[in-house]
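FOLDING PROBLEM:
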Amino acid sequence: MRLNQRLKKLVLLAIAAVTLLTVAASCKKSGETPADTDSLPQIDSSADTVSDDPRAPGSISYDDMMKKLGDASKINSYAKAWLTIPGTNIDYPVINDNDHKENNNYWLNRLLDGTESPNVYPNYDETVVYTHEEAILDADINKMSRNITLFGHNWDNINEPLRMNDPKDIMFAQLPMYAADIDFAQENPYVYFSTSDNEMVWKIFCVMYCETDWTQTVGIKYYLPNPNDSQMSILISEFRQRSMYEYNVDVKPSDKILTLSTCTRVYPGMGDSQRYVVVARLLRPDESDKDPVKVFQAINYKEPVV
């Protein structure tokens, strides 16, 4: 008798298990969540996790960047630095070519090997970003340009609503994610731009849209590579006024700044006379990329003159 009862219990348990599995499977297919999840294993969201993405925050390795830079420099001797921006797929060799100063757009449509791109959308691994033609990347960090501007294409993430994390994006097409989402800006306040001589981390303090030509309204260009103290103060002030976010990042004329510039069409009627720009300053010796950065929505920030 006890054996029969035990068998019955086992059969009932088996039926119940099959029923639960069937319900769970149907919920998974329909996208619903089972009502009773108390018995399911819970994930500790406070536990530290390690991302497999080499561009994830906290996962940036200078050695990995320099290995990639070494490979790129074997293809192109003008590849003098590497740029990685966490949270994006921006992970590129940086061309610093002072031999074509007469044409700042020389590398606009060129691939890593120096040939002109036959495609509007070249392969990710063939593309590069490039510095202003007068930018100086010296082994002595004190001799580097005070304002290092990097240019990169953005063909189609230029109109609102701006998209996020499209795997097909290349070059600077994911840079507008800072403008699209303040939470993204809060979570990714650091930029990694380094050379074989200097490991450098940069802290963002400005996300803005601006006119291409500042000479009429400001008197100097936002991408001026080697401003004097007075010009540097003007640039910092303008960046502050134009930023759509307020960062708790102090910036001094003695700081080095990194300016990332790309195309946009967010402001109708301006055509190609507008740019989207993210600006960061070099970390000081007593600072770390683990330091928290606070980001707030700016009120009445200065917008481009349409």
